[in-house]
Write a structure and sequence with these properties.
Blueprint (H helix, E strand, L loop, with lengths): L2 H16 L2 H4 L3 E7 L6 H18 L2 E2 L2 E9 L4 H13 L5 E4 L3 H14 L3 E3 L14 E3 L4 H14 L4 E7 L2 H16 L3 E8 L7 H10 L3 E5 L5 H10 L8 E5 L8 H4 L7 E4 L8 H13 L7 H19 L6 H8 L3 E4 L2 E5 L6 E13 L2 E13 L7
Parallel strand pairs: 1-3, 1-4, 4-5, 5-6, 7-8, 7-9, 9-10, 10-11
Antiparallel strand pairs: 2-3, 11-14, 12-13, 13-14, 14-15
Helix pairs in contact: 3-12, 4-5, 6-7, 12-13
Bound molecules: P-hydroxybenzoic acid.
The site of P-hydroxybenzoic acid has 9 residues, from loops.
């Protein structure tokens, strides 16, 4: 055998010697833990649909390995999130944990990620401190300080002087309340009252009566995705709109999933958020169309984009590691990653593992007979302000 032939033969067989075919074909497993039933099922549905869409389009195999999605329903029960995370890691041997529809659910599962050194991609939950609960957490959604701080700044700069805040009484609500107040008061405004409604079965009527009596220029609201409709209806029936009190909010309230059903009461609400189905870009037009086609015409909301981009983050990291699923290698690949999302340009802050993104100011308007969050102003490259202090 000539040396040249020997080299050719060696080159042909070497990849198989280094990596037996059986190992090369082993699937990469991603465990999605989401509230698929119960009061927050719309979050689970949207996140799963977003993640599946990206997987279908781009990620059924990566670096020669098939990618498997395993979905588990925690029904928004924190104890279930932790148990399911443990089961997925120990029994199913998943390489990545993902999903996490509400803050208490992400808090509960975080120790499992740390102990097993498994990357945990938080696709929905949005309390600032979540990424501090494990060095293996990376977030593809947003944080409440990231969207509430721009709202306070915008409100002060646009002539609002006296505002009452009303938030759901748990961690993301407290983040929204604190960061709206901080920037609104720094801009010269005053928060005259801070109200908190319970997470379970909230009845907003008594709170809204108090707001009416206080006669502020505006009411600032945060409620989690899915809860905005009842708030909006009562805002109108309690006569706040009629009394000239403006409604300003984080985009969780005018969630694209339910906005159309809110009817005219929602019109003119001003919100700040990182995603609108009406965002004007070729990437988003393609996303909205593909999402609708795959989901019976449904409109994607901000939860879906956390799932879509979270799946992209996982797949891009796997590509970078050439299919190596070691937790530390995947984390290193995710840190600093940037891409053009349907929501606009995004990046993973390598220090905080939070997402840096544009935050848009939007007004609810009718377009082609449907209600949309129409963007009219923008804050660029917003990092989570909750980490800086
Ligand atoms: C959360 O629990 O972190 C959460 C849930 C829904 C939202 C925002 C934050 O819309």
């Amino acid at each position: 055998m000539t040396l040249r032939l020997a080299r050719t033969v060696l080159a042909a067989v070497l990849p198989f010697l280094a990596l037996p075919p059986a190992v090369a074909q082993e699937p990469v497993k991603v465990g999605l833990i989401l509230p698929m039933t119960g009061p927050f099922a719309s979050t689970g549905r949207q996140v799963e649909a977003g993640a599946r869409l990206y997987w279908n389009q781009h990620c059924q195999t990566v670096a020669g390995r098939p990618v498997e999605l395993i979905v588990r329903d925690d029904a928004a029960e924190a104890a279930s999130s932790r148990r399911l995370a443990q089961e997925l890691v120990v029994r199913e041997r998943v390489h990545v944990l993902a999903g996490f529809g509400l803050t208490p659910l992400a808090f509960s599962a975080a120790p499992v990620a740390t102990q097993s050194k498994t990357p945990m991609v938080v696709m929905a939950a949005a309390t600032s401190s979540i990424t501090e609960k494990s060095p293996y957490i990376v977030r593809s959604s947003f944080t409440l300080p990231q969207v509430a701080a721009p709202m306070g700044e915008w409100a002060a700069a646009n002539g609002l002087k006296r505002v009452v805040t009303l938030v759901t009484d748990y961690a993301p609500g407290l983040d929204a309340e604190a960061w709206f107040k901080k920037t609104f008061e720094a801009g010269g405004g005053a928060v005259v009252e801070s109200l908190r409604a319970p997470l379970q079965n909230p009845d907003f009527s008594a709170f809204l009566q108090r707001v009416r009596d206080a006669k502020p220029d505006a009411l600032f609201v945060f409620v989690p995705s899915g809860v905005g409709s009842s708030l909006m209806k009562q805002f109108e029936t309690r006569g706040l709109k009629e009394a000239g009190i403006k409604l300003i909010a984080t985009g969780d309230v005018t969630d694209d999933d339910i906005l159309n059903d809110m009817g005219p009461a929602a019109r003119d609400t001003i919100t700040t958020h990182h995603y609108s189905a009406a965002h004007e870009s070729p990437e988003n037009k393609a996303y909205v169309e593909a999402f609708g086609a795959a989901n019976g015409g449904a409109r994607p909301n901000f939860m879906s984009i956390g799932g879509y981009d979270g799946m992209r983050l996982i797949c891009a990291a796997l590509e970078q590691t050439k299919g190596n699923t070691d937790g530390d290698a995947l984390l290193a690949a995710m840190k600093g990653m940037q891409w053009e999302s349907p929501r606009g340009p995004v990046a993973i802050d390598p220090d905080t593992r939070d997402i840096v993104q544009s935050v848009y100011v939007r007004r609810v308007e009718e377009r082609d007979g449907q209600l949309y969050n129409v963007e009219f102003d923008r804050f660029d490259k917003v990092a989570d302000p909750g980490k800086a202090n």
